[in-house]
Design brief:
Blueprint lengths: L5 E4 L12 E6 H4 L3 H10 L1 H10 L11 H17 L7 E7 L3 H14 L3 E6 L14 E6 L2 H9 L3 E5 L11 E5 L9 H20 L11 H11 L9 E7 L3 H15 L5 E4 L6 H7 L3 E4 L2 H9 L4 E3 L5
Parallel strand pairs: 2-3, 2-5, 3-4, 5-6, 7-8, 7-10, 8-9, 10-11
Antiparallel strand pairs: 1-4, 6-11
Helix pairs in contact: 2-3, 3-5, 10-11
Length: 315
């Protein structure tokens, strides 16, 4: 598919090779706090919204939920290039927006103000902007719109819904936390749990212990993240990854660990919570982003100030 009609190449930053890079697409409402502007759009329409953005084009937007995550990815790029200036396996960030280019000047100016290395700004008038994700080789899509996220997941792109919140995560190193079932892994065990209860799920896991769990919607992104992480020794890596799962370690942890080993996906730390709240552990880890399919876990993460992204399994 052709590039969107209004793609602005950011000449301030060196362009990445999308065939080698880990391409992350974020919507404007994911990376910046545009809640007031979005409310204006809903109440008074597109023309008034564009007028407001044009009038405030030199006023930087405040950071949004995914802002610190993008900053930390940028830090990883810096560390990679310090060790190998010719390296092409970098993070590549693009902004995808349903807004017109006329209202997008403020977005570009805001990115420039914060020194964000956004390679492209895509202003798409189509109702479904996710049709352009594959042409840009996007490996992760973050949006504040559930329909966009579901469309991306249907297209086979790792995607999650971010909720606007105040974020003060430190910038380094990049820390990413994943839930297990229905996120990194498929929801096969969840289905057994719903049909047969906890005892049935544990019996299923014991019977299937030697068989890797199916792939979940975030597996592809996690594998690309792991590929970048392997460029460094564990001690020097600017990336740390975590598994924070409701599974119990005693009864259901072995299969999860064996699956990660089978995939060749190294995880720095794994927490088997046995159904306990995840908030306290997440508060200790302080990830730049936490992916989970349970809204109660997302709420728990938000309660302790952790940027979180919901991976809906009910699209």
């Amino acid at each position: 598919m052709a590039e969107p009609e209004s793609t602005v190449i950011n000449t301030d930053v060196k362009q990445k090779d999308p065939s080698e890079a880990l391409v992350i697409a974020v919507t404007t409402r994911a990376i910046f706090n545009l809640e007031e502007e979005h409310q204006l759009y809903l109440e008074k329409g597109k023309e008034e919204y564009v007028r407001h953005q044009q009038a405030n084009q030199d006023k930087p937007l405040p950071p949004g939920t995914a802002f610190a995550f993008i900053q930390a990815a940028q830090y990883v790029n810096k560390k990679i290039l310090e060790s190998n200036p010719a390296e092409k396996g970098l993070f590549d960030i693009l902004v995808l927006s349903n807004n017109s280019p006329e209202g997008g000047v403020r977005i570009i100016n805001s990115a420039r103000h914060y020194g964000l290395e956004i390679s492209k700004f895509c202003f798409v008038s189509d109702e479904d902007s996710t049709q352009y994700l594959k042409s840009h080789r996007v490996k992760l899509f973050l949006s504040a719109d559930r329909t966009d996220v579901c469309n991306a997941l249907r297209r086979g792109v790792s995607a999650a819904l971010v909720f606007q919140q105040e974020v003060q995560a430190p910038s380094t190193p990049l820390r990413v936390a994943f839930d297990g079932d229905a996120v990194l892994f498929s929801d096969e065990t969840d289905q057994v749990f719903r049909e047969q209860g906890l005892e049935g799920a544990m019996q299923y896991e014991r019977a299937m212990e030697a068989v890797p769990i199916g792939e979940g919607p975030m597996k592809a992104f996690a594998m690309h993240l792991g590929k970048i992480r392997k460029k460094f020794s564990q001690e020097e890596s600017p990336i740390r990854t975590y598994l924070v799962t409701a599974r119990s370690g005693r009864d259901m942890g072995i299969r999860a660990i064996k699956t990660l080993r089978e995939w060749g996906l190294a995880i720095d730390e794994a927490f088997f919570m046995d159904g306990a709240p995840k908030g306290p552990i997440l508060a200790q880890i302080q990830p730049h982003i936490f992916f989970d399919d349970g809204l109660h876990n997302i709420q728990g993460a938000q309660d302790v100030g952790v940027p979180s992204a919901w991976v809906p399994s009910c699209c």
